[in-house]
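Entry for the shared binder. Reason: the reviewer on the internal report wants the predicted structure included alongside the sequence.
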Amino acid sequence: MADGRSVDQTNRLKETIGKDIFLQTGTPIHPMSPLTKLIWMKETGYQPYINAAKFISIKEYLLLKWFGTYIVDYAVASASGLFNIHTFQWEDTALAAAGISSDQLSKPVPSTEICQGLEVELADKLNLPQDIPFVIGSSDGPLANLGIGAINPGDVALTIGTSGAIRQMASKPETDELQEIFCYGVTENLWIMGGPTNNGGIVFQWLKDVLGEKEVEQALANGTSAYDLLTNHAKGVKPGAEGLLFLPFLNGERAPYWDANARGSFIGLTLSHKKEHMIRAGLEGVIFSMYSIGQALERLAGEPTQIFASGGFARSPLWLQIVADMFGQDVHVPVSHQSSAWGAAWFGLYALGEVPSLSAIKEHIPMSSTIVPNANHHALYQELYQTYSELYFSLKPHFQTLAAFQRGSSVK
């Protein structure tokens, strides 16, 4: 996913027909998009591309091997940048740009599509009945929203694992010329809007690797967690890290900037700042990034009425409190952090007619806790966000220069 070799192709596409493709597909033009990767393959004469009969995902490959059919659910198709979210068909303009035909792609189907009829040998290996139904389901994002109960208007799901995303379901597709957020099809009458960040838990991992050598040793000796030890340091620092901000773009960035050249930065360092301030600023920087995506999402989807948190970060009380304080809203946390698995199971039940609706899952999700915001902290974060929101644009030309220098250095 983090392959950035198609940067040049991405930039050229943005300057020509990229906006038109986005308005039809809902997939922002970015080097991580399969569309731009295919254009790179075409232009560089990549041999596997030339030889390929089909272009499919791992999920499609498994379905092919198990059931002998080329099918893909709407959400996975949407994420390719090749799928029209208004017609639910492959988008001709995108196909032409990629240099492929619809015959080289799978048939798009709803998330409720059922496959059935395993071969006897495979059924025996899996220890499953040969006629067991397989519901095709959806991609990770829509499943996470469903599994956490964020399916009605105003319900926002905030997920942070290695990367992160903030998403909201919608009853109609919404895109605009700013191209800040994605809009993917899920079913014939349900779409998901939102934005992903490349930099979620991976930022905390980087902080641990760079600043946490002592804590890693302590954790190994005591059987504790280095992340918990680092979080305890950050707890002792006031919100705002005494004016230290961190742009968490360690792996480039997707929403809302869609800039593979974006780079991480500490802004405001002084002699009074210590390791604990940098850790706190790092954790806050990830949420500032999520908040900026939330602002773009709110423009199209409306103001959030409920925020639900899932993913590995939801195990951190400090990180959850930062979310509540920054967004100024209660944050609802489920018992299970595996919301995508809950969503997948419910899609299966819905497709098989075992439950009345997708939204009925709300009555069956055990919730763990609700994190309440601190009004004073919210006001402080709002003040700092004014500066944070301007930093990317101020530094963008320098990010481009440094990214080009870094790519040149890696070649040498």
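Summary line for the report: The domain at 1-110 is CATH 3.30.420.40 (Nucleotidyltransferase; domain 5).
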